[in-house]
Amino acid sequence: MKKTILIVGLGLIGGSVAVSLRKSPNLHVIGYDINEKNTDVALELNIIQEGTLDPKNTSERADIILFATPVNATLNWLDLIKDWPLKKDVIITDTGSTKTLIMEKACELRKLGITFIGGHPMAGSHKSGISAAKPYLFENAYYLLTPLESEEEATIQRLKEILSYTKAKLLTVSAASHDQMTAVVSHFPHIVAASLVNQLKEESTQNQTTKMLAAGGFRDLTRIASSNPKLWRDITMQNRIQILAQLTSWQKEMAKVKEVLETGNTDEIEMFFSDAKEYRDQLPSTKGALFSTYDLSIDVPDYPGSIAEITAYFAEEQISITNIRIIETREDVYGILVVSFQNEEDREKAASCIKRRTQYDVYIR
Ligand SMILES: NC(=O)C1=CN([C@@H]2O[C@H](COP(=O)(O)OP(=O)(O)OC[C@H]3O[C@@H](n4cnc5c(N)ncnc54)[C@H](O)[C@@H]3O)[C@@H](O)[C@H]2O)C=CC1
Ligand SMILES: O=C(O)C(=O)Cc1ccc(O)cc1
């Protein structure tokens, strides 16, 4: 039987969930956004089947309601739905990057007989809005679920069946553990990235040339500093206890680095880098918050036209690319062309295409 899903918040994440669920013939996807234009765009792009201006009244038809709104807005919605004409067995869920406060609301809802299971797809982008939505965004990424401890297994299973269309790897964790882990791999790194960029800005008031030198490494490390500030304001404030704990660990680590630099201990500083390299090199390459693209690196001679040559091969073999950039180019040496793809299959096709048609070395960094 066809299930109806109401998605509130049609931005990058709501739009991407909607378009991945649209693949199922058994789902009817209705969308609502506070900004009516986003609903219109979602309809035009065929991301949703139906738009609504009245989520409260529409909720009586919904089997699943998913909030993909900024996390503070989600807290407000979870108060409002207490008066909605909900179906008896509706499952409410969300996609928010924080979980502790949201699951406190779930406890209140449970007392009213309303089921809420927290959710958080661990893939995304620094981009926002419906126009950045992609059907493959969550493919192979972890999608964390935070049901209440007392939640019935069959209910969790019902939600998992719907979310399986995202092709994400669904994993159940507690809200507390969620907020601790995401502080480490996502929230605190966003603070570090923003602070590095702010440091460059400050430095550039003295010397304008510095920012011209901000090359591959700096750009890779700080991409997420281009994320939506209001979204990150809400995430940071909701998870500030865990983020503060990470900040304290970081300060301890920096104090050690400072001491090593002050004493000029060469071996210690090498160990600092080699410990990090060893751990970084064996991180699982699965898609996660900070590893959300399928990149292929191609060594190309640094001459104008090499990008055109490679993109022409991809076009001929109908391999879609999502991003392309050159890094570490210097005169007289090879540059590295980094091409991003939507999924592993496209990346494999691209690697085989380049190996067949050129002499260039290709590799996955
Ligand atoms: N950006 C990312 O990479 C990821 C974000 N998330 C979480 O998913 C949620 C959505 O994030 P994005 O899609 O990136 O943001 P977005 O800014 O792309 O989209 C949010 C959408 O919600 C709408 N909206 C704002 N307030 C609303 C309200 N009160 N009622 C209805 N609609 C409202 C906005 O108009 C916008 O269309 C957030 O909770 C975020 O923490 C989760 C995983 C990744
Ligand atoms: O752009 C990136 O790499 C991200 O970090 C995206 C992201 C943002 C918020 C999340 O809760 C999860 C993933």
UniProtKB/TrEMBL annotation:
Keywords: Amino-acid biosynthesis, Aromatic amino acid biosynthesis, NAD, Oxidoreductase, Tyrosine biosynthesis
GO MF entries: NAD+ binding; prephenate dehydrogenase (NAD+) activity; prephenate dehydrogenase (NADP+) activity
GO biological process, one term: tyrosine biosynthetic process
ACT domain residues: 295-365
Enzyme Commission code: 1.3.1.12
Pathway: Amino-acid biosynthesis; L-tyrosine biosynthesis; (4-hydroxyphenyl)pyruvate from prephenate (NAD(+) route): step 1/1
Reaction equation(s) it catalyzes: prephenate + NAD(+) = 3-(4-hydroxyphenyl)pyruvate + CO2 + NADH
Keyword Oxidoreductase: yes
Segments forming domain Prephenate/arogenate dehydrogenase: 3-291
Pfam families documented for this protein: ACT, PDH_C, PDH_N
Family assignment from sequence similarity: Belongs to the prephenate/arogenate dehydrogenase family.
Listed name of the protein: Prephenate dehydrogenase
Lineage: Bacteria, Bacillati, Bacillota, Bacilli, Bacillales
